[in-house]
Amino acid sequence: MRNITGTADWKEAHPGAIIGLLEISSVENTSASPELNQRKRQVEARLRKDYAGFTRGEFLALPMMAAYEKYYRRFDKTYHVLLQVESIVLKSRNLPDVSPLVDANFTAEVDTLVLTAGHDADRLSEPVVIDNSRTGEVIPAMNGYTKTIRAGDMVMRDRHGISCTILYGQDNRSPITPETRHVLYVAYAPLGVSAGAVENQLNQIEQNVRLFSRQAQVEQKRLLVA
């Protein structure tokens, strides 16, 4: 089990923020899951029904969206889960097929609207901490480029550097791959997102994972509160 803590800087910079941690071992990530694909179609159908005809303003009036939009607006950014939900509802696009462990997260994320990253836990080196980003810091982004990030963002870092940031996503050192057998999901919730919403997100991810990995073992499922 990975020992993950929140720094004093994170708690001072982001009072009221919540981090949800779900670590699961003995998982499979090698083949498509008909059960998970069925779950994806169900979530897409519900979103299209519940949000039919929604405008951008109506999406942003949803309490969960409003909390994230307030956070992102500080950095002149748009909450990317909002864009994903809009593409499903307004453009009739389906959830992507990446891999079961990734799709388990994406499916829960658009359903609950709680931002969550997924890592290969074996590729993270302790100490692993939730922290506040500083001026001039960089992240080796998923696209292979090194990205300079903004100061004041919530981040997770391990011994080698920043592993994830709310605004810029995950690094290229610890992503989920077909070989991943030990996964860590990290939900990022700014002030205004309830503990119950984060717990619901973690529970939904676990349920999705068990659709294709019934032997999965939960190593930890808990919240860090600033």
Report on this structure:
Helix content is 35%, strand content 25%. Helix 2 (34-50) packs parallel to helix 6 (100-112). A hairpin with a 3-residue loop joins strand 8 and strand 9. The chain is built from 7 helices and 11 strands. The mean pLDDT is 95. It has helices spanning 8-13, 34-50, 56-60, 63-73, 80-90, 100-112, 195-210, and strands at residues 4-6, 18-25, 115-120, 128-132, 138-140, 146-148, 154-158, 161-165, 169-170, 182-189, 217-225. The strands form 3 sheets. Strands 1-4-7-8-9 form a 5-stranded mixed beta sheet. A 4-stranded antiparallel beta sheet has the order 3-10-2-11, with helices on one face. By secondary structure, it is α+β, with helices and mostly antiparallel strands. The radius of gyration is 17 Å and the shape is globular.
